[in-house]
Specification:
alpha+beta; 5-stranded antiparallel sheet; 2 helices; 10 strands; about 25% strand; globular; binds cobalt (II) ion
C-alpha cells in the first residue's frame, strides 16, 4: 500500500500506522484520556519483572483498573499508564478487574480468530489469531501464586495484555486485510 494513498492508510511491511485526521484527537493524552498512546516508546519496551509485590504495586494496579474502567477497557497493561513493570489487569465483559503480576503463559492450546482493538491505538481494529486456551501463572495483588485457566475472551485479553509487557502490539499480529478504523466511542471492548 502506498503512503498517502488513503488518509489513514496502514503501510504494510514497516507497519507504520497513520492515524486519520478524524481520529487524531483520540491520540492526545489528557486527564480525561490518560492511556499512553501509540507511538510512545514505552509501548515498545520490555517491562521489568516485579521483584516484590508491595503497597506500591497495589496502587499501580488500582490506578490501572481505574483508568481501564474510565476508558471502557476490558484489559490494560502497566506500560499503558507509563509504568514499565510486568503488571496487567483483565476484566472481560464487565467482570471485576483482576490484577496479575509477572504473568506467564505456561500452557496453551487451540486457535481462535477474533477482532481486537487497543486503548493505546484508539479507533483501529482488526482480526487477530490467538490461542484458544491459555493457562497463566502469576502473582496476585497480595503476592500469592495464582494460576488461571482461561478460554474465550478472557484468554484473548490475557494474551493481548501479556504481549504489551514484551512491547508487542496487536498490530504486529493482526490479519492486515481486516484492519479498519471505527469510532471507539460507540464500541465498548478494547484492550
Ligand atoms: Co492493548
Amino acid at each position: 500500500m502506498r503512503a498517502g494513498h488513503i488518509p489513514g492508510a496502514i503501510i504494510s511491511g514497516s507497519m507504520e500506522i497513520v492515524v486519520p485526521d478524524e481520529y487524531k484527537h483520540l491520540y492526545v493524552q489528557s486527564k480525561e484520556r490518560p492511556v499512553v498512546k501509540f507511538p510512545a516508546p514505552i509501548l515498545r519496551q520490555t517491562a521489568r519483572h516485579v521483584q516484590k509485590v508491595s503497597p506500591k504495586t497495589k496502587r499501580v494496579a488500582d490506578e490501572m483498573a481505574r483508568v481501564m474502567r474510565m476508558a471502557n477497557g476490558i484489559g490494560l497493561a502497566a506500560p499503558q499508564i507509563g509504568i514499565g513493570e510486568r503488571i496487567i489487569v483483565i476484566a472481560p465483559k464487565g467482570t471485576r478487574a483482576v490484577a496479575l503480576i509477572n504473568p506467564r503463559i505456561v500452557e496453551q492450546d487451540g486457535e481462535m480468530v477474533g477482532e481486537e482493538g487497543c486503548l493505546s491505538i484508539p479507533g483501529l481494529y482488526g482480526d487477530v489469531s490467538r490461542k484458544a486456551r491459555v493457562v497463566v501463572e502469576a502473582l496476585d495483588i497480595r503476592g500469592r501464586a495464582t494460576r488461571l485457566d482461561l478460554e474465550g475472551l478472557s484468554s484473548r485479553v490475557a494474551q493481548h495484555e501479556i504481549d504489551h509487557l514484551d512491547g508487542v502490539l496487536f498490530t504486529d499480529k493482526v490479519d492486515q486485510s481486516t484492519l479498519h478504523w471505527k469510532n471507539p466511542e460507540v464500541d465498548d471492548e478494547v484492550e
